[in-house]
């Protein structure tokens, strides 16, 4: 079925045509013909907005003692509703910076003012009506198009809407954007153009009035470029203001934009309709040669290829963006006063009445994010499957290497090495995994958080909860394998019963002490030992993960990969392995207090050789120096009854590192802006 009001062009695509206020989507012919449903949800439900910006400056620091650089030099401009506007200019002209400032993404070092419908911008309200789609598609690659959309709808639409209402909206958007047939395709398997359209589709769920897109055509072939720009144009003509940065469009792509805003070294060269660019250049005394793409020519001018003086001429002619002479109908452009009259303050009252920051309550955000986290964990072979496999394989290898070392008096030192190796395993694998994977999550977090999908708190709680079961299972599998293979003190039946208790105690962290404390009197000693061993292992994993999270939040993959293991070396030194705590020089003893591995090792030793462990068997050697566990404990200078202190210290580490990682994340999200 044909779209209402659509016309077929030579290229086989369908152009938009306004027909009594209805605008049909412009899609390639085949897709357009499939479309039949009216696009009722996709149309803006609010009055369009008129954006005016004045004297915008942006200065960045070049680092300590290196001074500052001014990127934008007091530019002005007007972004009219129902327009697709391109910000163009050579590389480094400040296009992305201007887009960052206009979208509210960049806040530090920014000067000037932005007005919405004649009044100073109120960031809270502005964010409710706008969205920012960055250049790199920050999508959940493991989830299908349908899942991405459903989860976004659950986060962005009011909870009062049921799944059928949300489903209708999703179907409509996907159909209109030509993505419906890819509903079951995973994000990572989409083509560049489809990914871009999915990024737009995700933001369209909340039906924004203003959309900012950073280089939506970069990396796409010409047909995908046209599709994306045509889509943006249709969305704009429905009543939105859509602003894109574009690098160097072809003549046909350039003609698809309604307006252009051209920058050269942070100053405005031209602002007006696409059609008026050629007459403007002619009037400025730099006519565009015949058969030359005006977009190419103006970029060459902006690069200074025809002389720096031409840039000066154009900048002063455009009055650095103040001049509206080259707009469609300059006389019809309302003044700021007229806009204020047209949009009375009661509009602001309506905007204030909506949700304060995010669209849905925190409890909903958390449950949707947890659902999303588990779905991703199920699909992610690195984070989940590989992690489990590594724990099994390393567990078996260590078990084989130290087989039966746990109950033999002549192998106490070997067993000590095993305990330290276990600690290393628990420290390195979760820490490195977090350091390597978290930075890629960070870019998605930054986009979704900025576009008001959810709060940082909800995100943080959800990642903590989602990871816990995987940590517990991998740790349990590893512990059982190593513990049994190396013949640490154990009675299988009792161990199984109390293993459940130890797992439960970890899950319910607050009641950890209470549970084991209550159980201590009745639990067979061997199971207590295993529980302690397991708890210490799990705590070490949690501390190492928190450490990884903190580094992952603060640094990129390269720096994080360097810093994680490097910072871990002193932790190992101060743990009491190699140099026992007794032999540590007094002036370095403080190091043992800040090494979480020390508490881990002490906890392990307490579990295996503490709790009044009787004399060990001595079958494999004529003389066993450490037959009496007390003797060994005194030589490594570890007290057998420090378990609760160790747990307390590790708990403090988990809490401090988690809080520090949260604060770092919060700082990072704002610092990049
Ligand atoms: N945080 C920063 N610190 C230092 N310089 C910066 C910073 N951000 C941007 N710049 C510089 O400001 C200039 C403008 O950057 P911007 O990314 O806005 O340019 P652009 O026109 O979008 O370029 P491109 O088309 O290549 O993306 C560039 O020279 C860039 O190196």
From TrEMBL:
Q: Which UniProt keywords apply?
A: ATP-binding, Membrane, Nucleotide-binding, Transmembrane, Transmembrane helix, Transport
> Which InterPro entries does this chain map to?
AAA+_ATPase (IPR003593), ABC2_TM (IPR013525), ABC_transporter-like_ATP-bd (IPR003439), ABC_transporter-like_CS (IPR017871), ABCG_dom (IPR043926), ABCG_transporters (IPR050352), P-loop_NTPase (IPR027417)
> Where does the ABC transporter domain start and stop, copy by copy?
51-290
Bilayer disposition of the protein: Multi-pass membrane protein
What is the annotated localization of this protein? Membrane
> Transmembrane segments in this chain: where?
388-406, 418-439, 459-483, 495-520, 532-555, 562-581, 642-665
Report the family membership: Belongs to the ABC transporter superfamily. ABCG family. Eye pigment precursor importer (TC 3.A.1.204) subfamily.
Q: What is this protein called?
A: ABC transporter domain-containing protein
Which species is this UniProt entry from? Chilo suppressalis (Asiatic rice borer moth)
At the highest ranks, the source species' classification is: Eukaryota, Metazoa, Ecdysozoa, Arthropoda, Hexapoda
């Amino acid at each position: 079925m044909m779209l209402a009001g659509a016309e077929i062009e030579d290229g086989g695509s369908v152009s938009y045509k306004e027909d009594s206020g209805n605008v049909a989507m412009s899609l390639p012919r085949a897709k357009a013909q499939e479309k039949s449903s009216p696009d009722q949800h996709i149309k803006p439900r609010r009055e369009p907005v008129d954006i005016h910006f004045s004297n915008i400056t942006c200065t960045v620091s070049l680092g300590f003692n290196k001074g500052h650089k001014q990127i934008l030099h007091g530019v002005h401009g007007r972004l009219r509703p129902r327009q697709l506007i391109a910000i163009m200019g050579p590389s480094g002209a400040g296009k992305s910076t201007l887009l960052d400032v206009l979208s509210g993404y960049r806040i530090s070092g920014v000067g000037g003012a932005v007005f919405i419908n004649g009044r100073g911008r109120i960031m809270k309200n502005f964010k409710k009506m706008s969205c920012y789609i960055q250049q790199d598609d920050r999508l959940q690659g493991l989830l299908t198009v349908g899942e991405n959309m459903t989860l976004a709808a659950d986060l962005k639409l009011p909870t009062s809407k049921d799944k059928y209402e949300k489903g209708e909206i999703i179907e409509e958007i996907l159909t209109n954007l030509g993505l419906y047939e890819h509903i079951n395709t995973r994000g990572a398997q989409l083509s560049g153009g489809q990914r871009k359209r999915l990024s737009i589709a995700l933001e369209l769920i909340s039906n924004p009035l203003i959309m900012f897109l950073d280089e939506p055509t970069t990396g796409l072939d010409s047909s995908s470029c046209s599709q994306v720009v045509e889509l943006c144009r249709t969305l704009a003509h429905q009543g939105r203001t859509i602003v894109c940065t574009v690098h160097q469009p072809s003549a046909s792509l350039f003609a698809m934009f309604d307006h252009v805003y051209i920058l050269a070294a942070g100053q405005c060269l031209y602002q007006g309709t696409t059609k008026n660019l050629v007459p403007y250049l002619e009037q400025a005394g730099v006519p565009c040669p015949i058969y030359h793409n005006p977009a190419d020519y103006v970029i060459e001018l902006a690069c200074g290829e025809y002389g720096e003086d031409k840039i000066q001429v154009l900048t002063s002619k455009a009055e650095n963006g103040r001049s509206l002479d080259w707009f469609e109908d300059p006389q019809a452009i309302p003044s700021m006063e007229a806009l204020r009259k047209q949009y009375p303050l009661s509009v602001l009252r309506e905007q204030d009445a909506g949700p304060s920051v995010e669209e849905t309550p925190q409890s909903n955000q958390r449950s949707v994010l947890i659902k999303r986290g588990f779905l991703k964990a199920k699909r992610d072979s690195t984070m989940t499957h590989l992690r489990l496999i590594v724990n099994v394989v390393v567990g078996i290898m260590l078990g084989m290497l130290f087989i039966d070392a746990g109950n033999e008096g002549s192998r106490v030192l070997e067993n000590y090495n095993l305990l330290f190796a276990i600690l290393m395993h628990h420290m390195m694998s979760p820490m490195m995994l977090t350091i390597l994977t978290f930075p890629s999550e960070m870019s998605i977090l930054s986009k979704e958080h900025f576009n008001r999908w959810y709060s940082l708190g909800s995100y943080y709680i959800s990642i903590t909860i989602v990871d816990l079961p995987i940590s517990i299972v991998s740790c349990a599998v590893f512990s059982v394998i190593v513990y049994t293979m190396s013949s640490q003190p154990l009675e299988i039946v009792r161990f199984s019963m109390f293993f459940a208790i130890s797992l439960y105690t970890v899950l319910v962290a607050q009641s950890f002490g209470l549970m084991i404390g209550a159980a201590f009197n009745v639990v067979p000693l061997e199971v207590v030992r295993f529980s302690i061993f397991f708890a210490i292992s799990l705590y070490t994993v949690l501390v190492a993960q928190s450490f990884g999270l903190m580094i992952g939040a603060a640094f990129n993959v390269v720096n994080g990969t360097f810093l994680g293991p490097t910072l871990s070396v002193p932790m190992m030194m101060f743990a009491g392995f190699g140099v026992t705590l007794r032999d540590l020089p007094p002036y370095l003893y403080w190091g043992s207090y800040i090494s979480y591995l020390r508490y881990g090792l002490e906890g392990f030793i307490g579990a295996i050789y503490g709790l009044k462990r009787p004399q060990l068997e001595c079958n494999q050697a004529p003389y066993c120096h450490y037959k009496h566990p007390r003797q060994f404990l005194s030589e490594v200078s570890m007290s057998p009854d420090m378990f609760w202190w160790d747990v307390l210290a590790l708990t403090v580490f988990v809490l401090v590192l988690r809080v520090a990682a949260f604060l770092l994340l919060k700082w990072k999200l704002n610092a990049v802006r």
